[in-house]
From TrEMBL:
GO terms for molecular function: oxoglutarate dehydrogenase (succinyl-transferring) activity; thiamine pyrophosphate binding. Signal peptide: none annotated. CDD domains: TPP_E1_OGDC_like. E1 component of the 2-oxoglutarate dehydrogenase (OGDH) complex which catalyzes the decarboxylation of 2-oxoglutarate, the first step in the conversion of 2-oxoglutarate to succinyl-CoA and CO(2). The keyword Oxidoreductase applies. The lineage of its organism: Bacteria, Pseudomonadati, Pseudomonadota, Gammaproteobacteria, sulfur-oxidizing symbionts. Keywords: Oxidoreductase, Thiamine pyrophosphate. Belongs to the alpha-ketoglutarate dehydrogenase family. SMART domains: Transket_pyr (SM00861). Its EC number is 1.2.4.2. It comes from the Bacteria. GO terms for biological process: tricarboxylic acid cycle. This is 2-oxoglutarate dehydrogenase E1 component.
Length: 946
């Protein structure tokens, strides 16, 4: 007998044909099927709604039952042979749905023979022996209830094995599958495009080919990463924008790598050709001293285009050469735009990602970004993914070398996205799947893929010779007509255009290019968009721009009290309840404020002042080190409560997300969000500072350099726990030296705050002053609960952020012989040791902002110590790491005659820190050296020759 589990699992789409055949057997003789199935089928015949997920199968069974009830049993009672044949027909239909794409006509070059798929062969199911005019029930096929066998086979072959290959049977949601089936089975593409659409298609293909030929002849040998071979992308994008506009979309944000970008800029976004030509010829207008620029095929652009549903604003994101890294950046930008509009379902702002085939299969950030797509804090209502499938990765032609899957798109099945493969040489099929994909996205708010199978007519770039490594492929490509040529001949054969009209299109496009005119659809100028951000307020602002970050005492105390209010009946965990009691004493002024409360108060103050706050990271809600507790949980029923969302009726939005276990995609997402929303405080917190290593591409190619390459401003904050606590090589260092090495021209800020008041003022300063550059923060671990790392209320209500904190103990400046400089939690170890030993000739100064270096504040801090003989930089990190090598020249600039500059730290090492606790405890040696002046000369050769 079948178990209940077997019955439930057998209802999956792959077994539908088998179940339908079993049901036929039940109708013929109920006793011939197992009892469990007999009972199930009996329920299916009743009106009660059971097993909702299996609606298509149930619908088929009821259809068969109605046929049975409406005819005489003698006339329509199926014999065992007839039932077997009917089941075979249903299995054939299901086979085409499951595997028809494998025999579809997808490859314009026909490079490889199609595989043998038995499920698609009527002979495999012994249907070839039947009279092709025999009528069979079509089951759940979106067609008449009964059709001749021949017509059934013709229909499924036309639908599933033409120039479109649909993959959707991996989707578990029955409604989504049925929707797709009805669209591709019930409305065959043979209805075709209208005459006007065909002519417009040819116009776009002419443009796509025309710009490439023009650039190829005018700028011989210059890189442009042409679209030749994949020209159907241009009508695809044109239709996508127009159809999106019909569906109410008002903004589309596009991410793509370099291939085809110049073509898209020219023919879709309406970038003036003269600007393109100027870039090829090296003519730029911006000041290269302030704006280094980027190559033309990395440039972004924005425009406004009219559609049947109104004007659509289109933004093409700037993108470095690192292939798919743009994916999460675009998603973050889209989320910011959606939130600004209150577009919760993603109906007004549409993300579009254009990929390369090998990059989509090979880059891990693709999977990470797909994994964000349905999560609470990162969803954008579904993305349309377009793959320019050149069937080659860089210089690799064998798919066995580029992936381990059948298709480059298989990774998208992890989110059950439908995948529509389409032959790029059939532009009408490309239009059909574009509308289908968009309609699916709008209907189900999920990602969807268009895999446009084409080829690359030239090499990886225009100077490359691909035939060296792919001789057979390029023999075919050289003989293969372009898609414009193929479609032109098709329209001429159908008497839709004449040869002279086709040639006139070519000539007119070339003339427009030569005259430098916009060749895309007309661009709408001077569009007033009430949701657009005015960035002028943030341009040309120095980092020294002042901001008042302190709060009036009463306002501060009121905020603190509101943060501690709990819903009636809310029961805290005992450990959290202890923290809440301590915070109550802090709010009353009876206890100094600790780090977690100081940071939370910074967010609370901004929210009540109308500034939204977005904080993400792994375990960001509670805080990795059990310090933040921005989200607390009722121990009675587990319901969460977020105090920062309940401060005032008119407060700004606060969102804290415990992100998925990704650094690269999540940090890229937050960067994209911050570049689109300058009026919100956007933060990403690494669980440990070294975890940011997994997102180094985002840091190198966007965060540190996006401003100088593309002129993009971004106020993103990175919180990186840092400090040598004996936790091993990786969990000690956030690789401070890497960030400092990337600093130039005030491109970002690097801070190491040491008190709760400092983190409070620093976070408020980041948004209250109009300086929108990234902020890198080395946050502490042990200082989160250190007895000295606390601040009184006055530090929040009277002061601001201090770039340099001078000596806090009462030491006679005249007696100081030694000035120790440091950053971070090492300060407290130096301080406690000096106090315990009664040392009075050494002053300790903290550098809280390492970049941009606060030279004036530093000079002011050391000025009182006129008798000092030594200036010592002390750090926990090894000599080849940490701040020393990037900051020592700043100290040398301030060193007076006779004042010696020394380094104290760990010896050079390849690892960031030691892994053995006893070795870590040698940190006391560093402290002794710094406070006594007994410097290790081996680590200071030539240091005073700076």
């Amino acid at each position: 007998m079948f178990t209940q589990l077997q019955i439930d699992s057998a209802y999956s789409g792959a077994n539908a044909a088998f179940i339908e055949a079993l049901y036929e057997e039940y109708l013929r003789d109920p006793e011939s099927v197992p009892e469990d199935w007999r009972n199930r089928f009996a329920r299916l015949n009743r009106r009660e709604q059971v097993d909702t997920p299996h609606a298509p199968v149930r619908e088929t069974f009821r259809k068969l039952a109605r046929e049975r009830a409406n005819t005489s049993s003698a006339q329509h009672c199926l014999s065992p042979l007839a039932a077997e044949q009917q089941a075979a027909v249903l299995r054939l239909i299901n086979g085409y749905r499951m595997r028809g794409h494998q025999n579809a006509n997808l490859d314009p070059l026909k490079l490889r023979p199609q595989p043998t798929v038995p499920d698609l062969d009527p002979a495999f199911l012994q249907l070839d022996r039947l009279d092709p005019t025999t009528h069979f029930n079509t089951g759940s096929l979106a067609a008449p209830d009964r059709m001749p066998l021949k017509q059934i086979i013709e229909l499924v072959r036309r639908v599933y094995c033409g120039t479109i290959g649909a993959e959707y049977m991996h989707i578990t949601n029955t409604h989504e599958k049925r929707w797709i089936q009805e669209r591709i089975e019930g409305r065959p593409r043979i209805e075709g495009a209208s005459v006007d659409e065909k002519r417009w298609l040819l116009t776009l293909l002419t443009a796509a080919e025309g710009i490439e030929k023009h650039l190829h002849s005018r700028y011989v040998g210059q890189k442009r990463f042409s679209l030749e071979g994949g020209e159907s992308l241009i009508p695809l994008l044109d239709e996508l924008i127009q159809h999106a506009g019909r569906n109410g979309v008002e903004e589309t944000v596009i991410g793509m790598a370099h291939r085809g970008r110049i073509n898209v800029l020219t023919n879709i976004l309406g970038k003036p050709p003269q600007e393109i030509f100027d870039e090829f010829e090296g003519r730029i207008e911006r000041d290269p001293a302030r704006y280094v620029g980027d190559v033309k095929y990395h440039q972004g652009f924005s425009t406004d285009i009219d559609t049947p549903g109104g004007i659509v604003h289109i933004a093409l994101g700037f993108n470095p050469s690192h292939l798919e890294i743009i994916n999460p950046v675009i998603e973050g930008s889209v989320r910011a735009r959606q939130q600004r509009r209150g577009d919760r379902k993603g109906e007004q702002v549409l993300p579009v990602q254009i990929h390369g085939d090998s990059a989509f299969a090979g880059q891990g950030v693709v999977m990470e970004t797909l994994n964000l797509s349905q999560t609470r804090g990162f969803s954008t209502g579904g993305t349309v993914h377009i793959i320019i499938n050149n069937q080659i990765g860089f210089t690799t032609s064998n798919p066995l070398d580029t992936r381990s899957t059948l298709y480059c798109t298989d990774v998208a099945k992890m989110v059950q996205a439908p995948i529509f493969h389409v032959n790029g040489d059939d532009p009408e099929a490309v239009l059909f799947v574009t509308r289908l994909a968009l309609d699916f996205r709008f209907r189900f708010n999920k990602d969807v893929l268009i895999d446009m199978v084409c080829y690359r007519r030239l090499g990886h770039n225009e100077a490359d010779e691909p035939a060296v490594t792919q001789p057979e492929m390029y023999k075919k490509i050289r003989r293969h007509p372009t898609v414009r040529e193929i479609y032109t001949q098709q329209l001429i054969a159908d008497s839709i255009i004449s040869p002279s009209q086709a040639q006139a299109m070519v000539e007119n496009y070339r003339k427009s290019l030569e005259q430098g005119r916009v060749v895309s659809r007309p661009v709408i100028c001077a569009v007033k968009n009430r949701f657009a951000v005015d960035w002028r307020h943030f341009h040309s602002v120095a980092w020294t721009c002042p901001a008042t970050t302190s709060l009036p005492t009463e306002q501060f105390k009121s905020l603190a009290q509101r943060l501690l209010e709990l819903p009636n009946g809310f029961e805290l965990h005992p450990r959290v309840e202890k923290i809440w009691r301590e915070r109550q004493r802090m709010a009353n002024g009876d206890q100094l404020i600790d780090w977690g409360f100081g940071e939370t108060l910074a967010y609370a103050s901004l929210l009540t002042e109308g500034c939204p706050v977005r904080l993400s990271g792994q375990d960001a809600g509670r805080g990795t080190f059990f310090h933040r507790h921005a989200v607390i949980h009722n121990q009675v029923d587990g319901t969460p409560h977020i105090p920062l969302q309940h401060l005032a009726d008119d407060q700004a939005n606060f969102l804290v997300i415990d992100s998925l276990l990704s650094e690269e995609a999540v940090l890229g997402y937050e960067y994209g969000y911050a570049t689109a929303e300058p009026n919100a405080l956007t933060l990403w917190e690494a669980q440990f500072g070294d975890f940011a290593n997994g997102a180094q591409v985002v840091i190198d190619q966007f965060i540190s350099s996006g401003g100088e390459k593309w002129g993009l401003l971004c106020g993103l904050v990175m919180l990186l726990p840092h400090g040598y606590e004996g936790q091993g090589a990786e969990h000690s260092s956030a690789r401070l030296e890497r960030y400092l090495q990337l600093c130039a021209n005030a491109n970002m800020q690097v801070c190491v705050p040491t008190t709760p008041a400092q983190i409070f003022h620093m976070l408020r300063r980041q948004i209250l002053r109009p300086f929108r550059h990234p902020l890198i923060v080395m946050t502490p671990k042990s200082l989160l609960r250190h007895r000295l790392a606390t601040s009184p209320i006055q530090a929040f209500t009277e002061d601001g952020f201090l770039n340099v904190i001078g000596e806090i103990d009462e030491i006679d400046p005249e007696s100081v012989k030694r000035i120790v400089l440091c950053a971070g939690k090492l300060y407290y170890e130096l301080l406690e040791t000096r106090r315990s030993r009664g040392i009075t000739d050494t002053a300790i100064i903290r550098i809280e902002q390492l970049y941009p270096f606060p030279s004036d504040d530093f000079a002011q801090a050391i000025a009182p110590y006129r008798n000092a003989e030594e200036l010592i930089w002390c750090q926990e990190e090894p000599l080849n790491q940490g701040a020393w090598n990037q900051i020592k020249h700043r100290f040398a600039e301030q060193v007076a005659a006779g004042l010696q500059l020394w380094f104290v730290g760990r010896p050079r090492t390849a690892a960031p820190a030691v892994g053995y606790r006893p070795v870590h405890m040698q940190q006391q040696t560093l402290i002794d050296e710094a406070l006594t002046g007994r410097i290790n000369p081996e680590m200071n050769p030539m240091v005073n020759q700076l």
